[in-house]
Amino acid sequence: MTSDDLRHLPWHKSSYSGNSGNCVEVAGHPDGTRYVRDTKDRERGVLAFGAAQWAAFVVASKAGELDR
Prior knowledge:
The protein is an alpha+beta fold. The chain has two helices and four strands, in the order H-E-E-E-E-H. It has helices spanning 3-7, 51-62, and strands at 11-13, 24-28, 34-38, 47-49. Strands 1-2-3-4 form a four-stranded antiparallel sheet. The N and C termini lie far apart (33 Å).
């Protein structure tokens, strides 16, 4: 996916980000891919996760497996 394509996706800021400046944004593509970027530095690049990878992340996150 090109940078221009990524700019046109609907990006959503995490509701847990608050005003600390440590924010991430997530965008979903119709093919199931999820893209994640740093809100402070949107031009730096994105991480892409397939549908199965994203689903595993969400399950692990909700179960508290990723808590410090």
